[in-house]
Amino acid sequence: MITEALKILMVEDNPTDVTLIRREVFKVAENAQITVCNNHSDYKNKLVGNPPDLIISDYNLPTSSGLEILETAQRLVPSVTFIFITGTINDEELAADTILNGASGYILKKNISLLHKKLEPYLNAIAKNGPMMHPVRKKIVESKKLVKDIEVFLENFSRENMSHREGMLKIQEDLKRLKSGYDFKTLKEADSKPPSRD
After folding, report:
1. CA distance 10 to 54
2. Closest to 78 measured CA to CA, from 45, 109, 103
3. Residue ranges of the Response regulatory domain (predicted)?
4. How many domains does the chain have?
5. At 102, which CATH number?
6. Whether the predicted pLDDT of 193 surpasses 70
């Protein structure tokens, strides 16, 4: 039995399946902290706010496909173990695609009573490697935030430069207008004449 408080994020829209999967997880990891979400935007917020040790996802959801859920995980938390638990993947080619796209594995819901046995190797590996992976995940999240901050800075810097450039162009146009509005030769001559004494 795994005693570590593993953080599991479950993406599932069927409440019955949520209950069954929870029960199976607790057979192996009694202190697991399971968070459930059923839509893509909630999922993204939870990933960024509190990266999990394991993501368990259905393949078909009302607001997105399993591959979209997987792609988001690959982009935001690439080191996190990702497993599909689904009734949809009957096709071997589709199953292979999920692995090629970065999923750690997939388990069919028709074998849900054996789910704890299939999850056990993944959960054991996470429990064993967790202390090493947490600093890595933290660094990845910090790096992504830094990259985002740099992108925002460059965007603002570029916008400010554009504003300065527009200001300079306006000043140049105003100077041209002033030059064309006055006959500087006449002004020079007027300046060189002695003032009249009336």
Report:
1. 8
2. 103
3. 7-124
4. 1
5. 3.40.50.2300
6. no
